[in-house]
Design a protein that fits this description.
Blueprint: E1 7-15, E2 18-31, E3 40-49, E4 55-63, E5 69-72, E6 78-83, E7 86-89, E8 91-95, E9 98-105, E10 113-119, E11 128-134, E12 139-143, E13 149-151, E14 156-162, E15 169-175, E16 181-185, E17 191-194, E18 216-227, E19 238-252
Parallel strand pairs: 2-5, 3-19, 13-19
Antiparallel strand pairs: 1-2, 3-4, 4-9, 6-7, 6-10, 8-9, 10-11, 12-14, 14-17, 15-16, 15-18, 18-19
């Protein structure tokens, strides 16, 4: 049973690791001492990128299906991540009310299994030692080149190299003067043509004083993801590995 010890925070909506349109949401942090494991739904993200040596692991513990109520570890409750013989303790940080536990592992080798363990020592509190995901295959952008300039009215040719994989690929883009977007492609694809107009200039926001510029830098990302298995002691949740590569180009009318 939950104790009435909750602290109300303000959370700026975060989507896929980037700040979205400002949205103030009342959120609540609950001490892990006050909640059973089967009432927790973790969101576990393992991320690897082209050019980096290893992988990062981040965990957000939600209370049930609530997107704004988080669990903050107390006492002897810990989160750790392991791959092969390496194990790291995940350290907590709070940003505008969002409590995240994170750490780094040395591997990004396809097929290596990352296991996240929630360990509890209090009597009556069940541990959840085996949420796991096998790392997906690598890919790397080859076009467009970083620093290139592209007209939004023209087709944009995107290409990447890739190891063989059964996991779907997503191409996404975001920038200060454009509408963020994405396109899903099949697992075996290594090219995508974005037809002219696919990347569009965004409209000026109601609270913006300055007009939206015609040109800006756009971040283009190609990624693939694989889902794993959440420990059955949890009430639900997800664990996912994503491998990505990004490039920045100049977008003009």
């Amino acid at each position: 049973m939950l104790k009435p010890m909750m602290k109300t925070m303000i959370l700026r909506s975060l989507i896929a690791g980037t700040v979205a349109t400002p949205l103030l949401v009342a959120c609540t942090n609950i001490d892990s001492d006050d909640i059973d494991t089967d009432a927790i739904n973790p969101t576990i993200n393992v991320r690897s990128t082209e050019g980096a040596d290893g992988s990062s692991v981040s965990v957000v513990l939600h209370v049930g299906s609530s997107p704004t109520t988080f669990v903050e570890l107390q006492g002897d409750d810990t989160l750790s991540a392991s791959a092969g013989e390496q194990t790291v303790t995940l350290e907590g940080a709070e940003l505008i009310g969002l409590v995240t536990y994170s750490g780094d592992l040395d591997t990004k080798t396809p097929g290596d299994v990352v296991t996240v363990a929630f360990t509890r020592s209090e009597e009556g509190k069940e541990s959840a030692p085996d949420s796991n995901v096998a790392l997906t295959e690598a890919l790397a952008l080859t076009a467009p080149a970083g620093g290139a300039t592209s007209s939004r009215a023209a087709d944009l040719e995107i290409a990447w190299s890739s190891e063989d994989s059964d996991d779907q690929v997503r191409v996404g883009w975001s920038g200060g003067c454009v509408v963020d977007g994405s396109r899903d492609v099949t697992a075996d694809a290594t090219t995508l043509t974005l037809e002219g107009g696919s990347i569009a200039k965004r409209e000026q926001g109601e609270n913006e004083e300055e007009p939206v510029p015609d040109s800006c830098d756009v971040n283009l990302t190609v990624s693939r993801s694989r889902s794993g298995t959440i420990d059955q002691a949890f009430g639900g949740g997800s664990i996912t590995h994503t491998f990505s590569d990004s490039v920045t180009f100049r977008s003009e009318p």
